[in-house]
Design a protein that fits this description.
Layout (H helix, E strand, L loop, with lengths): L1 H19 L4 H11 L5 H15 L3 H27 L29 H16 L12 H12 L5 H26 L13
Helix pairs in contact: 2-6, 3-4, 4-5, 4-7, 5-6, 5-7
Amino acid sequence: MEQVFEFVDHTDKDLLLFLHNQSSPFMDTVMAGITEKYNWLPLYLLLLVALFRQFGWQAIYSIVAVVILVTLSDQITSSLIKPLIGRFRPCHDPEIGHLVRIVTKCGGLYGFVSSHASNSFAVTTFFLLLFKDTHRYVWVLIIWPLVVSYSRIYLGVHYPLDILGGALIGILLGCIVYTVTSKLSAKVPFGFTPVRHR
């Protein structure tokens, strides 16, 4: 079993270095911009508009659900899993850290799992479920967490397995919060439902 873990770890590091080294000054700038959450404000605003167009003032329920979702995702990954597992980020890893280019700040000491991946996949999953019956092109949203996740590998702050672990946690939390929201909405006297045709 130990040999299996070593193989997975070495493969993960080799893949990280391969993807990380597919670099250029232009891509450094692009990926640094993609990984910055505030640069995605137009997308967040677009999702808010979609919520209010779909539900009117009752969109507040979904907004509260998303806030709870992101809080859960961020705290579980950053405050619980990262210190519990204690796996170094590539840029802090004594074994390969000297091979990693620091394009942006390295971040905290530990990287498993990725909070960026978890948060973006959690929100995406929630909205995919919320709008699955009313918006034909809602699946385009999946581009967002994929691009953000790749930027974290490119910048050398997360291993591919960090991203995969974060994505799985985010998807699971997105499904759980959507399911809970759906069940609770049936008991709300205002008649709110997760998806309402207009």
